[in-house]
Amino acid sequence: MAYSTLLTGEEHRRWLAARTGAPTAGPDSGEAVRVEREGEEQLTITLNLPERRNAYGRRLRDDLVSALSIAQIDQRIATVLLQGHGPSFCSGGDLAEFGLSTDAALAHLVRTTAGAAHALANVADRLTVRAHGPVVGAGVELMAFGARVEARRDTTFRLPELSMGLIPGAGGTESITRRIGRWRTGFLAGSGAGIDSALALDWRLVDAIVD
Fold first, then answer.
1. Residue 48's pLDDT is what?
2. pLDDT beyond 90 at 97
3. CA 196 to CA 127: how far, in whole Å?
4. Model confidence, pTM
5. CB–CB of 184/204 below 8 Å?
6. Residue 189: other Cβ atoms inside 10 A
């Protein structure tokens, strides 16, 4: 509710007015999310918008929720592997879509009913996430739902929402806090500072560093 309200707040409006070189939306073609079944027991879900660094926009969100529904329905799936194709696991919310919503009530409805957080939470005990590259905003929030999170050594993590007049709104106030506690979550969200994979491992934001 707080995030949806802030979308129409003065701070976010100032950020929208001040930003330059805002990206434009990409074409609605190709698979935003690729799904592969390996036998009966493993489902591999790959975020597949490498040209947009797997930005968490409407199309990727909806396709991710659809892919996760397979694991929610089929209890034979013992492992759900979530990864990203391209230079980043997920670069956060799609900036091309920021500022499009002017109805706080509708934004809240979409945020609470259409997001991937609930679906990820429902399969969390079977979920392994492989992160790489700069993981930003919603990327960190969604990643943190995993029962096991693996990160490449060059992975970095950052929550920049406060600088945009917002707060983490993709489930991170729940998922990240469960992993690293309130104070460290507050530091990441309040400072916007990035951390590397070594510190993320020390804080238990990730469970392993892999090469």
1. 97
2. no
3. 22
4. 0.93
5. no
6. 20
Q: Is residue 24 a contact partner of residue 60, using CB atoms and an 8 Å limit?
A: no
Residue showing tokens 């950020």? 15
3-class state of residue 102 by DSSP: coil
Does the CA dihedral 87-32-146-161 come out positive or negative? positive
Structure token digits, residue 210: 């892999």
Please give the Cα distance from 169 to 161 (Å, whole number): 9
pLDDT band at 8 (very low <50, low <70, confident <90, very high): confident
* Helix (H) or strand (E) run with residue 61 in it: helix 58-73
d(CA 172, CA 51): 25
Q: Is the backbone of residue 30 left (phi > 0), alpha (psi -120 to 50) or beta? A: left
Encoded amino acid at 81, one letter? L
Do residues 167 and 173 lie in contact, with contact meaning Cβ atoms separated by under 8 Å? Answer: yes
Largest CA distance in the chain: 51
CB 45 within 8 A of CB 68: yes
Domains of the chain, with CATH numbers? 2-12+31-210 (3.90.226.10)
Element (H, E) at 133: none
